Amino acid sequence: MSDLALSRIGSLIKTQDDVANIASIKQSFVKEKSSIDFKLSTATQVHFDSIMDNLAQMKNAMKKMNDIKASMAKIQQIYNESVAQPKDYELICKMICVNQFLNQVANLYDDISHFKGIVEKLTSVIRREIEQMQSSLTYTIPSFLDLHFQYTQIRNFHDYLEFYTKSSSDDLKSIVQRITMPTRDLIRAFDELLNECITSLTECTRENNLEIIYKLMAIIAFEEQEDLKLRVSRGLKLENTDINRDYKHFRSKERNYKRFFFEKFKLYFQGTFEACVEYNAHDRIALYDNLDWMQDEIVFVHDAMAPLFPQQWEIDSFVQSIFYDKLHAYTLNLINDEPAAEDIIRIITYDKKFSDFIKSIDGDSASMSIIGDDLKTTMLDDYLKTITAKMKEWNFSLMKQESKVFVERNKAPDIYPYDQEIEDVDVNNEPIVLHSEVSAYVLPDFKSPMLMMKEQADAASLAGNAKILIAVIENFCTCYVQRVANFQSLVDEEMDKYFQFYNNFHFLVKMSKARRLFKKKPTVLDVDSLTPEEQSNLSREGLVEYLGALANSLEISNDIMNNKFASSYKEKVHTNYHVPITQAFSTAVEKSNSLVSEICISISNIIINDLYTSLCKLFTKAWLEDGSKQTEDVMMMTVIAETIAEYMSEARSYCIYTVYQVLFEIFLDKFVCTYLSIGFENILHGEGKKIDPQTQGYKAFKSRIQKDAEFLFGGLSDLFMEKDRHYLLSSLTAIELLADLGTCEDPMHNIPEQFREFVLPVFYNCSLDYIKGVVLCRKDMGKSQWKIMEPVLVEIKNEYHKNVEPPAVPILTLDGFEFAD
Fold first, then answer.
1. 778: three-class secondary structure by DSSP
2. Which of 554, 535, 557, 534 lies closest to 546, judged by CA?
3. Is residue 148 within 8 Å of residue 139, measured between CB atoms?
4. Which of 76, 143, 280, 709 registers the highest number of CB atoms within 10 A of its CB?
């Protein structure tokens, strides 16, 4: 008994109770044995039947083998007989050829009879594939290779018929032509399908439809191999003389699928380029700004498509050369048409951009300049000559237009939102930065010169030629200085017109006799004798606003040149070129700043001219009695302060902070000097009386002049930033000090001491004419005392300058004060 049986019995009989079931277990084993015996008998019978069947087949195969041997023996006998009897062999060969020819004719007849239907059906299928391809870039043309196989067989049949009838009669040729005529549409359709695949290749690749490339490459590789076979056959002079050959593989000429591929691939990119040229036909130079698509195509072909093609095809170089040739031809045609200077620099700029781009793609490849180095040098020289001439011409036209706008003032200045950061101090004198936006008045198109400069300089910098960039910057700055000089002349002319019409000099002449305040006697016109049109042409309204607009325009332009242009363009060139760039911009900014100061002086003169009606009373009896208990009139200095505040409040609303700050400081300096000059002139040559230090009460010079200083400070302090208020206080100190200088005891001793202790610490470069005016206006002093005091003051001033450094922020109010006795 086997171990398996014993194991099974052991698993069934484990306990005493299982022994009692032995009979049933035995019966179960008997049944199972019967089942196994039946299955074994059945399987044995199946295998036996299979063996018998195989024996029968083997017997049949042996019989067939014997038949084959008999046939082979018969063939051998026929061969031996044919070899032994040459006459019969030749006859048999002829019979074979005749039989082959008859079979070929039969096959030809059959193929010709069905040829038209087959060709038309295949043409229809190809047309549908073309439509499918045109409607979807993801369509893979599943039957592409099968279509090519069928198409190739038809082409081969077509070549066979033409080749073997080329020396036949014209009638036969005509019949063949009629038979093969449908192949023309088929060839055209298949070429269109290939063309559609080729022209859609880049877009299909973008859609990850790579099957098109693989199938196309397979077809081209096969055709290229067949063309090679044909060329080799021709080289070996193996002519196709056997008319009975298989025409499904017949070729009489090369089909050049690879050349077809490159031609269509080239036409696709050329067509895309020409479409871009056509789109920019209205502005030919704009083409260079719209070639990002071309660079994208080159990068895509290089990165995504070139690895899919055979390396020897050099697809990426081929595509690059297509675009290079088109760009080169387009650029040369454009250059031959003598483009404008700015267009020349744009061409040169793009040439460098294209060359750098190709290098970034191909690494250490040779430079691909679309112009050429020699032509580029010539173009740069021509550009420099042209752009300097054009810039001068443009600057002349700009000055002419700006002059017209500034003089005519037909409308309010333009408004330019200007965001500014202002450094100030808080109540604890700690520095803070304030941000504010002012709706600044500016001249129309005031940024045009800056934009023109940036455009030309950027173009020159992109062209990679530092000398051209320097020349453009220097020429621009020269033109800018000319514009500044032109504006200076306009300001002078308009100020002359203004004072011919609005001059309040007659108040001073009539009431103060202060003729010597002016270097030249102003022209006084008979305004009433002029027509309204003549009055309008003489001096139009809005001069102050336009002066402010001009100052703002210049200051904003200065900021652009200082903080943007200078640093930006120095970064684009070698440090050897930094000095000329700095010098050019510094010269332009210096001239511009000088004009801004002149403008602020002009506005100050207009304001002061408006104040003459009140200032003419300074230091007179009316001035001493002003604001006394005997009159209820508003004090003269209150009116003056309100007038100044009105002018300055308006200026603050439309001037940028730097202009407003300079304007107010210059005005304060001029106002204080004018205040002193008119007062001194009134005392010495007008209705005023000399200062009597002994006078007391409200008519005392000291108390009266202190009120003027208080009213001015109180009326103007709100118009200053916290840090600028110091300048206001210091400027008005020149008026306030007159109280002590004009009324102190022992003036020959105290005035020099006060000059040292109080005047020079505030006004570091104070003019000695300030003290001279005080001395000559005192009742107890005169020219003799001044002659004695003057050298003492000179020595004090020199000694002070030796021992004390100039202040960081000087107060310039009295630096240029002049007084003629």
1. strand
2. 554
3. no
4. 709
Torsion sign over Cα 267, 269, 273, 278: positive
Cα(393)–Cα(387) distance, integer angstroms: 10
Q: How confident is the model at residue 40, as a pLDDT?
A: 82
3-state SS record for 603-651:
HHHHHHHHHHHHHCCCCCHHHHHCCCCCCCCCCHHHHHHHHHHHHHHHH
pLDDT value at residue 457: 83
pLDDT band, residue 353 (cuts 50/70/90): confident
Amino acid at 808: A
What percent helix, strand, coil does the chain show, rounded to 5?
75, 5, 20
The stretches of 409-518 forming alpha helices (DSSP H) are 448-462, 466-502, 505-507
Give the helix ranges, DSSP H, for 337-372: 341-362
What is the C-alpha separation between 461 and 572, in angstroms, rounded? 7
Q: Which fold has domain 372-597?
A: Tetracycline Repressor; domain 2 (1.10.357)
Residue carrying structure tokens 């008319």: 243
What is the pTM for the complete model shown? 0.62
By the 10 Å C-beta count (0-12 exposed, 13-18 middle, 19+ buried), 622 is classed as middle
Check if the beta carbon of residue 485 is closer than 8 Å to that of residue 526.
no
Regarding predicted confidence, which is higher, 734 or 536?
A: 734
Q: What is the DSSP letter of 366?
A: P
At 40-96, the pLDDT tens digits run: 888 878 877 887 887 788 888 888 888 887 888 887 777 776 665 555 566 556 665
pLDDT tens for each residue of 602-628: 999 999 999 988 888 888 888 888 755
The neighbouring-strand residues paired with 425 are 431
Average pLDDT of 795-816? Answer: 93
Residues recorded for the chain: 821
The alpha carbon of 13 is separated from its chain's Cα centroid by a whole number of angstroms, namely 98
Q: Which residues contact 147 (CB under 8 A, 6 or more apart)?
A: 122, 125, 126, 129, 141, 190, 193
Spatial separation of the C-alpha atoms in residues 299 and 293, rounded to whole Å: 10
- pLDDT recorded at residue 57: 83
Amino acid at position 235, single letter: G
Tell me how far the alpha carbon of residue 698 is from its chain's centroid.
71
